[in-house]
Write a structure and sequence with these properties.
194 residues, alpha/beta, globular, 8 helices, Nucleotidyltransferase, domain 5
């Protein structure tokens, strides 16, 4: 399969979480998929979307709400995980593009949740850990959190940190500036993964 090189799908998920271990019978589940596209011609993010996902094997804790601003009532009005994956494929062409997230958590939770719920994986095999790439290309090998990377590039953060839609948008802004300043060469090895 050839990976399209016009845009990159930028993803940030929020999941149910607790201070400490999950309550008995509950697991970490995706409750928001924040997604946007980075246009590689303009180096600008576009088409941001928050997809709220209804958890099936967990509930949103007070700790999770304080962290993400997402409540149980909000996600109860969300869609099922399989439907969220279908949106990624249909509206973002996620199967045919390089996708990226800040770290590997997003990739791992998608892997496990797709297996758990028997949902087809919505992405190409070409995934880029933007946290690692930022460290290599910009930050002398030092890995930092997304907000530190935003500040390092002298950008102002937009939106609410730990909301998937806003973190995806800020990550896309970081990646766009990296491409504008350093060219696309660092992307080639990831396009080859597809």
């Amino acid at each position: 399969m050839t990976i399209k090189q016009d845009k990159i799908v930028v993803v940030d998920v929020e999941a149910t979480c607790w201070r400490g271990e999950p309550p008995p019978g509950q697991i970490n589940e995706i409750i928001e998929v924040g997604v946007c596209l980075l246009d590689l011609e303009t180096c600008q993010p576009e088409k941001k979307q928050s997809i709220l996902v209804r958890p099936e094997r967990s509930r949103v804790s007070l700790f999770c709400t304080k962290l993400t601003t997402l409540t149980q009532d909000m996600v109860d009005h969300g869609i099922f995980f399989g439907d969220a994956c279908a949106i990624l494929e249909a509206e973002f062409d996620s199967k045919n593009r390089l996708w990226t997230s800040w770290g590997n958590y997003d990739r791992r939770i998608f892997d496990s949740q797709c297996q758990l719920f028997d949902v087809p994986y919505p992405y190409s095999t070409a995934h880029m850990n933007l946290k690692d790439v930022f460290a290599q290309v910009v930050n002398s090998g030092k890995k930092v959190g997304l907000m530190r990377a935003v500040k390092t590039l002298e950008l102002l953060p937009e939106g609410t940190h730990h909301r998937g839609v806003d973190d995806a948008w800020n990550a896309a802004r970081v990646l766009g500036l990296m491409v504008a300043n350093h060219g696309k060469d660092f992307l080639h090895e990831y396009w080859q993964q597809g």
